[in-house]
Design goal:
Length: 234
């Protein structure tokens, strides 16, 4: 199976899940999670029609960006946001999906203002309440969004979540449904500078369940690229 074949198969599964939920599959943004996969593979995925490319590591992202890997598609950062790497992220990618604290928002805003731009972000929610995992708790989301609305240089475009690992993909559904309810509730708040356009959740094993529950952005790696390769990027 080629990357193009895999993208087609993922699109078909998205369409099936969307149909079951009475949704239009065209409203689902497919992000190719490219961690450890080289620039050539990324270019193949873009040529096959993915909507965006997501990277987990700043250094890897910058290396592949220098190689022209992302030409023709928006670039998302989907990994853990380290405060000392924010200066490399802001302006280098179109969307930072994994912002989970006031400190991160403030640093992103400060850097964006220094560069004379506005950085789009998603707020990551720790929907499974897992100790040590990144993201804001559900009950703290309202307060964080209220603060985000006051920060220049940052534009919140929606929410993102990585639910706890489950053996059966269907078991992830309650987490996705809880996230969708948070998404709807936050959209109703109508804060300045907060635009609940995207709900990013679901990966290779669970994206169909996420789409059924209301996700309009999914991050798919293995189902597109195959198993991760930790060899030399080229």
């Amino acid at each position: 199976m080629t990357i193009a074949d895999n993208v087609k198969a993922v699109r078909e599964k998205i369409a099936e899940a969307a149909a079951l939920a009475g949704r239009d599959p065209k409203e689902i943004t497919l992000v190719a999670a490219a961690k450890t996969h080289d620039a050539r593979a990324v270019r193949e995925a873009i040529a096959a029609g993915v909507d965006a490319v997501g990277e987990n590591r700043v250094q890897e992202m910058l290396q592949k960006k220098a190689q022209g890997a992302y030409e023709g598609a928006p670039l998302h950062y989907i990994g853990h946001v380290q405060t000392n790497k924010i200066r490399h992220l802001v302006g280098a990618c179109d969307l930072i999906e994994s912002v989970g604290s006031k400190t991160q928002l403030e640093l992103i805003g400060k850097r964006a203002c220094a560069l004379g731009l506005t950085q789009d972000v998603l707020i990551e929610v720790n929907i499974g309440r897992e100790p040590g995992k990144a993201g804001v708790l559900a009950e703290e989301l309202d307060e964080l969004c209220a603060r985000a609305a006051e920060i220049s240089g940052v534009r919140v475009m929606g929410l993102m979540a990585i639910p706890p690992f489950v053996e059966n993909p269907a078991d992830s559904r309650p987490y996705f449904e809880s996230m969708y309810q948070l998404f709807v509730d936050m959209r109703a708040k109508k804060y300045d500078n907060i635009f609940m356009h995207f709900l990013s959740m679901g990966m290779s094993d669970t994206f169909a369940e996420a789409v059924k529950a209301g996700a309009n952005m999914v991050r798919v790696g293995t189902a597109i690229f195959g198993a991760r390769s930790y060899g030399q990027l080229a």
